[in-house]
Structure formats: structure tokens, C-alpha cells
Amino acid sequence: MAVPLFLRIGIRYFRRASGNDRFLSLVSWFSLLGMLIGVVSLIVVMAVMNGFERELQQRVLSVVPHGYIEGPQRRLSDWQRYAATVAENPQVSAVAPYVGGKAMLAVFKRLRGVSLYGIDPEQERGVSAVGEHMVAGDYLSGDAGQYQIIIGDILARQLGVNIGDGVTVILPKVTVTPFGLYPREKEFTVSGVFSAGAQLDATSAFIHISDAQRLYQLGDDVEGLRLQLTDMFVAPHLLPELAALLPEGSVAVSWSDSQGSLFQAVKMEKQMVRLLLLFIVLIAAFNIVSILSMAVSAKRGSIAVLRTMGSTPGSIMAIFIVYGMATGLIGLGLGLLIGVPLAQHIGEVVAFLEQLSGLQLFNPQVYFITRLPSYLQWSDVAVVSGFALLLSLLATLYPAWQASRVQPAEALRYE
User: Fold this and answer.
1) pLDDT at residue 415 is higher than 80
2) Is the pLDDT confidence value at 200 over 80?
């Protein structure tokens, strides 16, 4: 099958590197290099940002369930029946009761605000993996009345407590006595320390649900239900439907609500980094405009000869579109060839460089991770490829249109 003339000429213009074309060829390769660097940077950085986001989701949601359903006025009676009703939904994998809210932990003069949860130790295993993240001591025992508490490792360091030490739990509620109003408080013993590798290690504490019921004076009632779903992303839509099965006034809170600001901040950061890196590809596209504009000026005589031999303005325009697109396509192809494997193995590459240089990028005593996470999404690769191709095409249109307007007689007048 014969190759179209405009395609052969356009590719030859790109490949030639002799005589007066040497400078243009050099600039073309620099533009190609800019496209390559831009594509590699976008793919690798987006994969790393996706890796951080997924790592954050896995760590946070290993302690925080996919959603809560609070009873009316934060009190739910006959919760066993409602838990069984909610569990019948095929998208619900586990249900557990809870009691709790905001509280203060006090040790001597140290005070820390925490999210305090009263949980059933056995049922809680279905909705969170806090029992699997114990780094010291033991998980909550099944016996009530021992007033045990487990806290995050960061919180334990901040309070300066170890296993067996006592901490005072202070609630934002008051007890009326003949001597006045006093905050409700109770002494608990630290039985275990967990570490999920997230900021929750500094803000979460768990006690037995029976102890919490006594502390909050709820009797046999609970505040609500903690739910684990088969698909975390259906939580914002499914939880309101499940809340409708509970008494009127029940409120559904999904993980996107309770932890929404954290994930929104990560998403915003990812979008801004992506936008900044797109400027590298945009600069490479502007280089294509410069290359083609210089090429049109340098090849006015060749364009005039082609026109006198019968080439149409459309074919002249096609020649320079091919010339410019060759830079974008080759830069994109090489960028994908380098960027995709690098994004998939960036953790190993960074670990090798750390070993080689003796430097440590992530200090485990400071950060929650020890290596660079990465998660490559092919949709991101498709978006980067489409954006690079579109910019390359748009960059060729104006110079190619200028080439198609060259008049043979004027161009050959001084030849």
C-alpha cells in the first residue's frame, strides 16, 4: 500500500538533520524531550498521589467503619432488632453497636481530646480492624466492668502512659450534686495500644460497650450502629436508605462525611499537582508551534515548488501537521514506555536509590510510611495521552495553516 505523499514529506522534514535543517532538527528533539519529560512526570506523580490516597483510605478505614447510623437524639433502643434488619441488606457485610462521642483523657496535668467509642469487642471485629493493629498489650476483653481502654500509640506517647497505667475519661456532660455541677468522669486502665499508621492513632480510644453504657447512663440502649459495607463507595447513597429502616430521626453518617475533609484535601492536592505538571506538556506544545513556524519560514521555497507541482493548500497543511505531530507522538510514546514501568515500580526504584546513597526519604519515626506508595490507574494514562495528543495537534494547526497560504510566485521571486 502506497504511503501518501504528505505523510512521507512530513516525516522526512522531521528526520532530516543536514545543511540548513540541522538547527530545526535540534530544536525538534528538544521539544520531543520536553514532551517525554512531561508525560513521564505526569504518569509517575499521578500514580504516587493515587498511592498516597489509597494508603490513606486503607489505614483510616481500617479503624473507622464505612458508616454510622445514629439513633434519634443519639439513643437507640431495641438495637438488636434494628441491627438484624440492617444486616439483611446484601451490601452490608457487618453491623456492630457503639456508644461514644467526644471526650477528654487526663493523666496528671496532661489533657488530650479524643473520639471515645464504646464497642462490643467481638462484633467490632467485623466493622474495624483495630484488634489487628495492637502493638502493645491486649485487645479489649469480653468481660464488662473492668474499665479497660485501648488507645493509639501516638496518643499514648502524648499522655506518657504505658500498659497498666490509669487515665481519667472526662465527658462533656455534668453530674448534679448537692455541692454543684461536676463533669462526669471515670478512671480507666490502659490495657492495649494500637497503631493503624494514621492520624487516628492520636485521636481515638476504645472502651467496652457495657462500661460506656454505664458512663453515658444509657442502660441497655446504644447510640447507634457501626456498619461495614461490601463497597465503601456506595456508603453515601446506601446509608440514608438504611437509616430509614430505623426509628424516625435516625441520622446516617458515611466515611465520606466523617473523614471527608481529609480525603477532599488529598484530592485537591492531587488536582493541583496534576495541573502544574500539565504545564510541562503545554510548554512542549508551544515548542512545536515555534518549530513549525521556523520550518515554514525556512521552507517557503520548497512549499512553492510543491504548489507549482500541483499540491493543494490542504496537502501542504497536512505535511506540516504530520511534521509537528511526529514530535508529539514520539515524545508521548517514549514517555509512556518509560513512565508506565517507572510508575509501577517507583517504590523499588526509590528504595534502591536510598540504599545506594545512604539517605532515607521516609523516616518511620516521623512519617506513617516507610516507602513511596504507587497505584497506577490506566484511566490516568489515557487522560495524559489524550491531553498530549490534543495539545500536539492544536499546536500544529496555525503554522500549518500559514504554510498553506504561501503563494508560489512570491516565494520563488527571490529564489
Assistant:
1) no
2) no
CB atoms within 10 A of CB 134: 16
Lowest mean pLDDT among 21-25, 148-152, 275-279: 21-25
Please give the share of the chain, as a percent, with pLDDT higher than 70: 84
Q: Are residues 10 and 71 in the same domain?
A: no
Same domain, yes or no, for 47 and 128?
no
Do 27 and 82 sit in the same domain of this protein?
no
Which contacts of 215-219 are long-range, i.e. CB under 8 A and separated by 24 or more positions? 215/118, 215/169, 215/171, 215/184, 215/186, 216/99, 216/100, 216/118, 216/171, 216/173, 218/75, 218/99
Of 206, 231, 255, which marks where a domain is finished? 255
Chosen domain end from 199, 221, 255: 255
- Cβ neighbours of residue 72 closer than 8 Å, sequence gap 6 or more: 247, 248, 249, 250
Domains held by the chain: number: 2
Rounded Cα distance, 9 and 64, in Å:
62
